Amino acid sequence: xxxxxQSRGVIALIIVSFSVAVLLLYSKVHPSSPVTIVTxxxxxxxxxxxxxxxxxxxxxxxxxxxxxPPTFTLSNNITIPSIGxxxxxxxxxxxxxxxxxxxxxxxxxxQSSRWGYRESDVGLxxxxxxxxxxxxIVTSSSSSSSNGEGGSKERDYVFVQTKIHPEDLGYHxxxxxxxxxxxxxxxxxxxxxxxxxxHCWEGICAHEPxxxxxxxxxxxxxAMDDGIVRAIGMCDVDERLLGQMxxxxxxxxxxxxxxxxxxxxxxxxxxxxxxxxxxxxxxxxLYQGYSTLGSQWFHHKGYTQNPVxxxxxxxxxxxxxxxxxxxxxxxxxxxxGVMVLPASTNPSHQESNLDSYFFTLSEEEMQIINDMxxxxxxxxNASQKDKHxxxxxxxxVNHVDxxxxxxxxxxxxxxxxxxxxxxxxxxxGKMNGMGDVLRLTSYHGHAFVFKDxxxxxxxxxxxxxxxxxxxxxxxxxxxxxxxxxxxxxxxDEEL
Length: 495
Hints:
Blueprint: H1 5-29, E1 35-40, E2 43-48, E3 71-73, E4 79-81, E5 85-86, H2 93-102, E6 106-108, H3 119-128, H4 133-139, E7 159-164, H5 171-184, E8 192-195, H6 213-225, E9 232-235, H7 239-246, E10 254-258, H8 266-278, E11 286-290, H9 295-299, H10 312-321, H11 325-334, E12 338-340, H12 347-354, H13 363-370, E13 391-398, E14 404-409, E15 426-431, E16 437-443, E17 447-452, E18 469-474, E19 482-487
Parallel strand pairs: 5-6, 6-7, 7-8, 8-9, 9-10, 10-11, 11-12, 13-19
Antiparallel strand pairs: 1-2, 3-4, 13-16, 14-15, 14-17, 17-18
Helix pairs in contact: 2-3, 5-6, 10-11
């Protein structure tokens, strides 16, 4: 028997109507189990289950249904999804284009190609998809503000967030970096710009920056004033740094920190949640998590396999729902008000990450994952990667009654550079008073110099040139894999 398309439509409508009636009757019998009916691509999806709104979710996060992720409204009235595509780790043009096609509307990139980012590829993909902010705004009706998103047309563009490399900190350097991102992303307005790291340290900068994050922030504030940038923020922020940022004329709208089930950044997140609860919507700050699926442990913390993806606890929860571990982690994180940015070059992984709400974690399961914080097990079938034979864990202790700035001295190159070439020194940290400790990972033969940082704790360090050298130290692996060096004033000696 051949059934016409019209007949099939009538049959489908009868089935859906009957299902709705049954479930509404069910909800009367079981009032504690709400019924959610969500239309996606003109198809009604009906779910019965526990409420998905977590009591710990901060006010800025919207209520989440069983099938759709929550959204976040930034302090300037811009609404963004809580799941974005991270684009480090080799994510390139075709991967970005596929992500856009399957529904991603937030892409996190950066200027640093050394860290696996391809900012130009992001710009090309979004431009060719005709889904830049300016593509949308041209065809949209009037906006409620220069930066916000009023008007009647439904938002449909890809929000792109980029980051300034710490070696480009400084007023003029940051201005040039912004211009570079505008060109690479093929835009006249940058959706969001973060400072990638608040300062340089050994190994991440090819040269000492012109200035500090304070100088870079001044540029970002001016760019906000001029409408060149719509949102600003920083990565790797602690409570002290947050306090300094909040004292600026324009405070941060986005903070991006390392966050995963074993590293939940609870103290800082509590500080941020308290701030958000005490302030109006136009002062809210979004918390983004990077490496939420555990890549930090594998790539940077010495584990031979990813402990998040291989966690028996998370695997058991995932199997209960026919889900994958990343989907469990993504739902757990976003329900707590954390935006996630999983990177993937795999099309099916991109799609499944976006589809993390076809099930609902119970409050008990949410708490089980919360309790994983700091309880990182060593996998039975894996051990930590062997350290580099020249690696040394250094601890510098300030014995000077004042501020000490610490500089790494890059290796000499054909007689150039070295201790005497102050312009090559890379600022790696500051000790603000006697007894302060600076810890870092170094290697055999690395040289450091310690200079008078002045009397002001928050004094901006523009250059090591002309500063009094107090001390120096060359790392020697023969003294052990963990070493301590005390910094005292030896400026009257020949160093």
